[in-house]
Amino acid sequence: MLNRIIRFQAVLKIITNQTATALELLARQSSQMREAIYQNQMALDYLLAEDGGVCGKFNLSNCCLQIDDNGKAVLEITKEIRKIAHTNMEKHMGWGLVV
């Protein structure tokens, strides 16, 4: 039984690390996409300045571009996920496990 628990813990650590890595990559990509979108919006507004920018050109009354950057929050969460995954099992004596 103890061997199964140890194997399960190892598999869980691998899955947790892979999940955290995927979340980190997505958070970085999201931040990069946000930056690129804002750059494109600025370029379009510059090119369409005579018409009032993108909003003026297309007569849009609610034309505020706001993209929240949650990348930092996601990176903090992944740090916590990794910390939890690397917690020594001996600290969890309350689970009835003695390793």
From TrEMBL:
* InterPro entries for the chain: TLV/ENV_coat_polyprotein
The domain of life for this entry's organism is Eukaryota
Write the protein's name.
Answer: ENR1 protein
What is the organism of origin for this protein? Crocodylus porosus (Saltwater crocodile)
